[in-house]
Amino acid sequence: MFAGIKEDIRSVFDRDPAARSAFEVLTNYPGLHAIWWHRMNHRLWRADWKWLARFLSTIARWLTGVEIHPGAKIGRRFFIDHGMGVVIGETAEIGDDVTLYHGVTLGGTSWSPGKRHPTLGNNVVIGAGAKVLGPLYVGENARIGSNAVVVKDVPPGATVVGIPGRIVAKQDSQVSEERQNLAKKFGFDAYAVASDNPDPVANAIGRMLDHIHCLDNKVAELCQSVNQLGGNVCDAVPTMNIIDEAFLAAEREAAEQRKKAHEEFDPTI
Predict the structure, then answer these.
(1) Distance between CA atoms of 114 and 150, rounded to whole angstroms?
(2) 3-state secondary structure at position 202
(3) In this structure, are 227 and 165 located in the same domain?
(4) Does one domain contain both 21 and 152?
(5) How many helices (H) and strands (E) would you count in the chain?
(6) In the 8-state DSSP scheme, what is residue 235?
């Protein structure tokens, strides 16, 4: 049990830059508290203590703002960011390393017994306010945009937006992995940087990562050729300093501008 709690806390640091310490995560993340309640309630549900499981899940909803039916099956390192308003139905199944934001509903579309709720593969991310309805399947590494309403299966690696949900990007797994690895080197998350993503900023970042990857390969080939001719280059790759003073100065300037705008604001206008 304690190993699972430690794993959950570590997963928060991987997905939430606002997390500062393990104690802060342990005491101030209602999404985690809801998951821990659910694990106890799910054991009671499987042991046929169904009323007690439902009662404790109601208590957990009052305390955390997250409603998880004790019959739902949830994998490892599941993370609910902010938590408030999340609803997960009885027959929902969630894989490992899944992230949900506030207001997400994994709901049903039928009153008939049986499988009524979605199944999420590993590494799925669902944005704030999205609704995933019915016994559909969301493939691994899929992304669902905020406030989308998904009523059909989502293939692995796809990005879905809109009402009803439509696929706007289907990532190439190899390209996606290369971009994510490069993004980590530069200190940012390569979220939604598929080559055909409709967001022009994300598209530009994705193209830049592709170009950097190509340049890295060319430099490696050049170093190897020079070394074969008797030279001695590229023995040590310089480390990158992610904390750039120019970025820090720009951040301070932006903070001062926000403060100035707040002081000059006239509420009587």
Answers:
(1) 20
(2) helix
(3) no
(4) yes
(5) 7, 15
(6) S
Can you name the residues that pair with 169 across neighbouring β-strands?
159
Reported as a single tens digit per residue, the pLDDT across 142-180 is: 888 888 888 888 888 888 888 887 887 655 555 556 656
pLDDT digits (tens, 9 = 90+) for 69-109: 998 888 888 888 887 888 998 888 998 888 898 889 998 88
* 177 and 132 share one domain: no
Integer Cα distance of 22 and 167 in angstroms: 37
Query: Strand (E) positions, the chain?
Result: 67-68, 73-74, 79-80, 87-88, 93-94, 99-100, 105-107, 119-120, 125-126, 131-133, 137-138, 143-144, 149-150, 158-161, 166-170
**What pLDDT band is residue 52 in, cutting at 50, 70 and 90?**
very high
DSSP calls for 56-122: HHHHHHHHHS-EE-TT-EE-TT-EESS-TT-EE-TT-EE-TT-EE-TT-EEE-S--SSS--S-EE-T
| SS3 at position 53 | helix
Residue 124 backbone phi and psi in degrees, to 5: -80, 140
Query: Do residues 43 and 159 share a domain?
Result: yes
Q: What percent of the chain has pLDDT over 90?
A: 8
**Distance (Å, whole) CA 132 – CA 166:** 12
pTM of the predicted model, to two decimals? 0.59
